Amino acid sequence: MTPLRPLLDRRAGAAVMGILNRTPDSFSDGGRFVDDGAAGAQIDAMIDEGAVIIDIGAESTQPGATAISATEQLARLGGVVAAAAARGVLVSIDTTSPEVAARALRDGARMVNSVSLEPAAELGALAAAHGASLVLMHSRGAMADMPAFSSYPDDAYTDVVADVAREWSLAADRALRAGLPREDLVLDPGLGFFKNARHSLELCARLEELAALGFPVLVGPSRKSFVARAAGEEPPAPAHRRLGGSLAVALACVERGAAIVRAHDVAETRQALAVAAALRALGKRPRPAPRAEEGRPRHA
After folding, report:
1. 224 annotated active-site
2. pLDDT above 70 (res 115)
3. Is 163 strand, coil or helix?
4. Is residue 186 a part of any domain in this protein?
5. Is 5 a catalytic residue?
6. Any idea which of 40-54, 83-97, 281-295 has the lowest mean pLDDT?
7. Is residue 300 part of a domain?
8. Which of 223, 224, 242, 256 is an active site residue?
9. What does the pLDDT read at residue 294?
10. Which residue in 103, 195, 262, 270 is the catalytic one?
């Protein structure tokens, strides 16, 4: 069993994956955590706030971002993966590069988070060899080619849920054939990636259909432009003003079967999920029958 499985306790709502970007150009917090001291403090803060997974990336995945070589990614990462693993948290490496993934796994990462379906076989074999989990996110191309602000053509999908499920399953099969145990594979529908706001919202509204494929589902709505567009904001509000929409999407997805929520705002996300879980628990408690006199009509 990989370290991920014990964290997927539905009674707790969902596992929170905190985001640490070792990049100068990520859309929301680029440049904030390239310093080792700032990165370490942020890791500690996210753990204290309730993150059970820390997702560390060294390559921006915002629309239009250019690909970064494995050498540069490794230089940006430095020793932060090993430092995070030493804190006892499950560390995820956010990369599509087998070379970067292999180094991070040797440094103590126990999850690979790929924003591309293309390297499914190579990353599946690597994860299996290290007893790690693999997140495969649905996407349809390189980040450099992705339109900004959720502006993907509406007719690009015949049925976005069915199309995502089919395309993702083809990649999942490659990872499984490479030796990855089925229980170590995680599905990410890729909210906002080569999808417009309607596509992303429909994936959230029908997430049960993706969960029915039998894999844990990870969602990452955090601060994405589609949540602002869904609120009718044109142009979309800046990333730091999208917390409310991000939480609304996270809660809706967990209600529909999401097992992991990837978030910049860990404390707020953990609190929202905990309150929702408490409400669900209360709603399932048997209610006492009304006393007989409560049902009698009152007379003046």
Report:
1. yes
2. yes
3. helix
4. yes
5. no
6. 281-295
7. no
8. 224
9. 55
10. 262
